[in-house]
């Protein structure tokens, strides 16, 4: 099962970012005593009592008028609600109950999601009289904490993990290829799946956000079984375009964690955006096999070197995943769509490939002869032995004499030699250095 998602929502300046940073264990969100400082959606992984979850910090839901910003608040709250499995609704224990809290509570009560009402800035064990006013929000027992002083956080985390969904995801057989179709909204994720399936299995619309939740679509092609996980987008509104993109990342995280292979969809008419980089980066960090699918290729005006130039731009922008194959397709004209399944199957096999230990050490020995390991102050790095520890992604452990002598450039050299000998196309490779007496 993928990590549950927990979103922190509330009006500005109630301490959401301070709480987020305390759980993250580092200063990720900007903390300043000024409303509206958190302009991005920021996420981090948190562990508590053998539970792991993704925590989202959100900007404040602020009301400054009866019309435009009220709509803005509703849209932001809606995005947080649709994304998360559990909502942490944070209020200010010093300021007491205010009308904006009531407006947000009205939305959350109708959400059908577990909501925890958290009263922040309660710095003593004696609850202020204003604490009891929050019962009026009808969101259950309020939890008193102080983010700044780390008071009550353990009890709050207990309440959060107790509300996680149980066995929400369906388990699939090991040999079924699970494919996460990822990318920002409206790049054609559902259209590509429908084209591959040959039928309308997923609703397709030009409105970004038609797909409300991640949809699993199992199907068989020849002798191979697949499950496509179509990641949800968020409906665009005129004032929240930027915020939509932040949530599309978090939605993609959930699907990426469940998948073997990621199809990173890029809009040919837009090129690689910052949001594409974030989503691609998460797939890379999670060690997933990835194919880059440039959709809407039919809409681009072509010149002699258009495809080569586009490929070069992708390689520059996504330089951390040079292993990922690139396909230029059109869901509308079906141009090269038939290559997608072939590529997905191929990189899935590469992702789970295990190489013989003897052959692996022969390759490394030859690489050492061609390019000696680095040295420092007269002491040279020695490589004794290499073994493949795991697959999905392929992980190699190199036993050495001194970890401090390792250098990034030589590790990259070894990785390149492994790829030259065995392939591993479409998948990241993990290389770990251990001193001879270390355990794997």
Structure in words:
With 440 residues, this protein is an alpha/beta fold. The protein folds into three domains: 5-162, P-loop containing nucleotide triphosphate hydrolases (Rossmann fold, 3-Layer(aba) Sandwich); 177-351, 3-Layer(aba) Sandwich (Rossmann fold); 357-435, K homology (KH) domain (GMP Synthetase, Chain A, domain 3). It has eleven helices and 17 strands. Strands 2-3-1-4-5-6 form a six-stranded mixed β-sheet, with helices on both faces. It has a six-stranded mixed β-sheet with strand order 8-9-7-10-11-12, sandwiched between helices. A three-stranded mixed β-sheet has the order 15-16-17. β2 (42-48) and β3 (51-57) form a beta hairpin. α6 (241-258) runs parallel beside α7 (274-285) and α10 crosses α11 (408-422). The longest helix is centred in the middle third of the chain and has 18 residues, at 241-258. The protein is globular. Mean pLDDT is 82; it is low at 29-41, 207-213 and 233-244.
């Amino acid at each position: 099962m993928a990590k549950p998602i927990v979103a922190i929502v509330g009006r500005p300046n109630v301490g959401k970012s301070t709480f987020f940073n305390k759980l993250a264990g580092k200063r990720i969100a900007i903390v300043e005593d000024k409303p509206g400082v958190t302009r991005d959606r920021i996420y981090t992984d948190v562990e508590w009592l053998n539970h792991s979850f993704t925590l989202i910090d959100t900007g404040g839901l602020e009301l400054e008028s009866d019309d435009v910003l009220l709509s803005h608040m509703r849209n932001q709250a809606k995005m947080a609600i649709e994304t998360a499995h559990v909502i942490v609704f944070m209020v200010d224990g010093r300021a007491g109950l205010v009308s904006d809290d009531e407006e947000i509570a009205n939305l959350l009560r109708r959400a059908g999601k577990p909501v925890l009402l958290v009263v922040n800035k309660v710095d003593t064990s004696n609850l202020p009289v204003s604490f009891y006013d929050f019962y009026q929000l009808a969101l259950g027992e309020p939890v008193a904490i102080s983010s700044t002083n780390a008071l009550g956080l353990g009890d709050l985390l207990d309440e959060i993990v107790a509300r996680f969904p149980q066995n929400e995801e369906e388990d699939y057989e090991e040999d079924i290829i699970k494919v996460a179709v990822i990318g920002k909204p409206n790049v054609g994720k559902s259209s590509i799946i429908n084209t591959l399936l040959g039928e309308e299995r997923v609703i397709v619309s030009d409105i970004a956000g038609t797909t409300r939740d991640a949809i699993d679509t199992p199907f068989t092609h020849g002798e191979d079984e697949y499950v496509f996980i179509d990641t949800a987008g968020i409906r665009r509104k005129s004032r929240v375009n930027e915020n939509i993109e932040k949530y599309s990342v978090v939605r993609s995280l959930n699907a990426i964690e469940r998948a073997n292979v990621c199809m990173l969809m890029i809009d040919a008419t837009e090129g690689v955006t910052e949001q594409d980089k974030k989503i691609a980066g998460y797939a890379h960090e999670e060690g997933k096999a990835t194919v880059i699918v440039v959709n809407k290729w039919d809409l681009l005006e072509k010149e002699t070197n258009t495809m080569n130039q586009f490929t070069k731009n992708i390689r520059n922008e996504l330089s951390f995943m040079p292993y990922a194959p690139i396909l230029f397709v059109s869901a509308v004209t079906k141009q090269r769509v038939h290559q997608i399944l072939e590529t997905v199957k191929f990189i899935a096999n590469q992702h789970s490939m295990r190489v013989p230990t003897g052959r692996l050490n022969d390759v490394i020995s030859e690489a050492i002869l061609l390019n000696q390991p680095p040295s420092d102050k007269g002491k040279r790095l020695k490589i004794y032995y290499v073994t493949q520890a795991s697959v999905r992604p392929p992980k190699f452990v190199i036993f050495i004499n001194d970890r401090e002598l390792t250098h990034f450039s030589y590790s990259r050299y070894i990785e390149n030699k492994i790829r030259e000998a065995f392939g591993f196309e479409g998948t990241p490779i993990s290389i770990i250095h251990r001193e001879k007496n270390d355990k794997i």
